[in-house]
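Here is an idea for our session: we take a single protein and study its fold together. Once you have written the record down, we can walk along the chain together.
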Amino acid sequence: MQMNSKAIDSIIFDLGGVLIDWNPEYVYLDVFNGDREKMKWFFQNICTNDWNENQDAGYPLSKATAERIELFPEHEELIKMFYGRWEEMLGDEIEETVAILKQLIDSKKFKIVALTNWSHETFPKALKKFEFLQWFDGIIVSGEEKTRKPFNDIYELTLKRYNITSENSIFIDDNLRNVHAAESLGINGIHFKSASLLKKQLEDFNIYVR
């Protein structure tokens, strides 16, 4: 985290893991009959995080699925489930953090936007499910921009599109890699771990929520 004496006027929120609970375990733990080791192997070797992040940068889901099946034909059904049952991986809003978001918005002191690594093909389902996504002054969806965190261009795009000054802004993300990337551009970073800790972290910037 970078501290500065300038007043914060903009707050940039990540979505997944901060405001929205998304976890492929909701599908695959049942599919693997509760065997976490088998599930872990599948995520480390077949439907990997790197593979999924490529789709977050705009790569077509159908093409990514077909290519993965071509590489691992013996896992065809399991691979198809990743995006075929994607909605079942989408949990509920993280209520405690959404409550903080609402207080910040209601204070009318800040420009509040979201910056998310998310496929443009699945994001409309989240928009339909979560009413609070309508509260933001704007949302940058990586899949729509054909780039993603932690690459500099998506942060720079966010700052430019919403007229945000880096040193007057805070970026909140549960992925430390993404926080460090924001900090390298002069944005104040908060590594999100819990809503209760977030309240204390915001106090470092003289921002107080209940």
Notes: Residues 24 and 86 are 8 Å apart (CA to CA).
